[in-house]
Design goal:
Number of strands: 12
Helix content: 25-40%
Order of helices and strands: HHHEHEHEHEEHEHEHEHEEHEE
Strand content: 15-25%
Distance between the termini: 65 Å
Number of helices: 11
Strand order of the largest sheet: 2-1-3-4-5-11
Radius of gyration: 22 Å
Largest sheet: 6 strands, parallel
Structural class: alpha/beta
Length: 339
């Protein structure tokens, strides 16, 4: 059966007109109620009809989404959440997957997105020339990665602060040789690895621990990369007693490497991740939880609000909350392994 706006109204206990205002970003609806309506519409599978949307003539009813890796968990989760909000408001999504430097260069040179979309959600961090190209489209722009930049509405998290909480947890447990598995090599222009590394280094400095470059390994933000990086750290003469992985996927790879080397977690090595991936609870991973889907929903909502009020500028940056989730992969260091 087709889901109607009345169904969404009944599910949330408000009028159909309130649902319409909420989904289109119009004023007169509290943020709490708007969030409830957006979630209910997405769960019910409601899609507004274009004829009823009352958009100005010339609009494409399409949102462009630019991603560096559509197959990665983070980007896929943000995309799925945002698409549900766009769909509920009567918009289609035009996806551009810029997974290689060649494809990315061709996209920003030709800008095939021009005149085909009403707004753009960028899940990659553009360099200055790329950002200028996107602004030349003269449509609302939003992103969920990186810091504030001119012309963009930014929804994100405090990567540095989140990394600090992960590293501080390990240091407070008594670990002195704390390794880090990062994703410094990719994707292009991504600032997250740098911010999370700085948070890790800040905690070491506060604790009077001299950073050891040998305790850092690149895991490429994949499970396989995390396993490879953990294996590299274990080959050191004095391996770490604890590891902070900049993503849960790399942390899961680290757990696999430790199991393969017949090392116990957390008795022999403690591991902390970052993200709260949907499988993190299954493996009992201690991690820093970020609201990934919520970032996609909020960025989509803010884009729709810009479309409803073309004279409004980009919203102030929105910082979503983080939570430290303590599970089973961390413990004080074993006395015979601590150096």
């Amino acid at each position: 059966m087709t889901v109607s706006i009345t169904d969404v109204a009944e599910a949330t206990g408000v009028s159909a007109s309130t649902v319409s205002r909420a989904l289109r970003g119009r004023p007169g609806v509290s943020e709490e109620m708007r969030a409830r309506i957006v979630v209910a519409a997405a769960e019910l599978g409601y899609t507004a009809s274009r004829s009823a949307s009352s958009l100005a003539s010339g609009h494409t009813h399409t949102i462009g989404v630019v991603v560096p890796y559509v197959g990665r968990w983070f980007f896929g989760t943000v995309l799925d959440a945002a698409e549900k909000v766009f769909s509920a408001a009567g918009y289609d999504v035009l996806l551009y997957n810029l997974g290689s430097p060649e494809v990315r260069k061709r996209f920003f040179t030709k800008l095939p997105i021009r005149k085909r979309v009403d707004a753009v959600l960028s899940l990659l961090i553009p360099d200055p020339e790329e950002a200028s190209a996107l602004r030349s489209l003269d449509v609302p722009l939003a992103t969920t990665v990186g810091g504030a930049r001119p012309g963009f509405t930014v929804v994100g998290i405090d990567d540095r602060g989140g990394a600090e909480s992960a590293a501080r947890h390990l240091v407070n447990l008594g670990h002195r040789r704390v390794g880090m598995i990062s994703g410094a090599s990719e994707p292009l222009h991504w600032t997250t690895p740098l911010d999370r590394r700085q948070g890790y280094l800040d905690v070491l400095a506060d604790a009077g621990i001299e950073p050891d470059p040998a305790l850092e390994a690149d895991g490429g933000y994949t499970v396989e990369g995390g396993e490879r990086a953990m294996t590299e750290l274990l080959a050191l003469r004095h391996p770490p007693t604890a590891v902070f992985a900049q993503s849960d996927e790399m942390a899961m790879g680290a757990l696999r490497a430790l199991r393969r080397h017949r090392l116990r977690v957390p008795e022999d090595v403690s591991v902390v991740g970052f993200d709260d991936h949907e499988l993190s609870e299954v493996v009992g991973l201690t991690t820093v939880a970020q609201p990934v889907a919520a970032q996609g929903r909020e960025a989509a909502r803010l884009l729709l609000a810009r479309l409803d009020d073309p004279d409004a500028g980009p919203a102030d940056p929105v910082e979503m909350p983080l939570r430290f989730v303590l599970r089973e992969t961390t413990a004080p260091p074993h006395s015979r392994r601590q150096r």
